Amino acid sequence: MYIATSRSADSAAGIPEARSAARRRVSGNVLALGMVSMVTDISSEMVTAVLPVYLVLGLGLSPLQFGVLDGLYSGVTALVRLAGGHVADRFGRFKAVAGFGYGLSAVCKLGLLAAGSSVGAIGAVLAADRTGKGLRTAPRDALISLSSEPEFLGRSFGVHRALDTVGAFLGPLVAMTVLWLSLGSYDAVFFTSFCVAALGVLVLFVAVRDRKKAAAVRAKPSLAESAGLLKIASFRRICWWAALLGLVTVSDSFVYLLLQRRSDLAQVYFSLLPLGTAGVYLLLAVPLGHLADRIGRWKVFLGGHVALVCALLTLVGPFDGVLLAVIALALHGVFYAATDGVLMAAAGPSLPEHLRASGMALVQTGQATARMVSSVLFGAAWTAWDLYPAVLVTAGVLAVVVLAAAVARPLRRAGVSA
């Protein structure tokens, strides 16, 4: 199953039209993986949309306490990403490893029901949920990369992330609807989330085809080989800069909490804030992926971080009310559309096929670890300095790192398309 994209035909050297069009198509496997991510993201975003207000306004956690839990939620995937990528490469079972991760995350939605108001139990369940995400992410992205033409990786990841974002857009709407119908029951949200996640696992096993290894690369890679990927100069630079930029970003949950504090938004409407980010992400994921293929993936990746700097400054600027929310959430959506899939598209060409999942796991691990530390640091800064100083310092440091990454141009220095 394939769908054609809109790029102009390449008939210059007498290449047949059909062959030229085939190279410009997005694989049906990419579409199937996008559908799995869409359904799964409905489930996960239902929880993500209500979790900050549930923990901070419902259970009374301080910004520092929430920062620790949010960092755990974002960063516990670090080591298991490496494990998921290595196992998928070693045994050539990308679909099975990803499926296990999706299944674990689904079961954890029921764990939130059992955790009740215990912060420790909630933290343990969130850690297990993120373990599932960590296990599935690298094998899934490797399948996308291996199912796509190298010159159109940005577009393939853009299509996948666009479908994923449809789920991110629908998730908060479903969460708000369930809260309204259940008269504010968070348990009802968690149970509905489990049912949707289970459907995503079913779609994976029915619709996604695994990618078998070619005969030349059937040898099982060792951990030493996977770690040895960092000897590749272009790939090492990508890992380093992705981690450094992750260290100075602000997590989604804090962005939404900042908006809630500035606008004094009612709790029942808090879950709608991610819709602004998701809507812009949905509109721009494919165009920015295509743009990254044309002008350079690193340029688009850094441009996304510039958008995040602007979003942070907007949150402490003169705007308020609806205008503040529209501008901040639009810039936040641009940040994700320009960075999420684009980073994986940038890393893919520098990695050998038989280590593709392991390599992508390394990039994701560095970034996830850095964002875990970032959440704790930002929570501590907010607690110690209050809102405005914490945001201004973070925006300033992020701007400096983005400028340094622009000057360094790690991909071009290594002879890879920038």
UniProtKB/TrEMBL annotation:
Cite the Pfam families for this sequence. MFS_1
Q: Where in the cell is it found?
A: Cell membrane
Known CDD domains for this protein? MFS_MJ1317_like
Q: How does it sit in the membrane?
A: Multi-pass membrane protein
Keyword Cytoplasm assigned to the entry: answer is no
UniProtKB keywords: Membrane, Transmembrane, Transmembrane helix
Which domain of life does this protein belong to? Bacteria
Cell wall biogenesis/degradation keyword on record: no
Q: Which PROSITE patterns match?
A: MFS
Transmembrane ranges, per UniProt, are 100-127, 162-183, 189-208, 238-259, 265-286, 298-316, 391-408
Q: Which residues form the Major facilitator superfamily (MFS) profile domain?
A: 29-413
Q: Tell me the PANTHER family matching this sequence.
A: C-METHYLTRANSFERASE, MAJOR FACILITATOR SUPERFAMILY TRANSPORTER
List the protein's name. MFS transporter
- Specify the taxonomic lineage: Bacteria, Bacillati, Actinomycetota, Actinomycetes, Pseudonocardiales
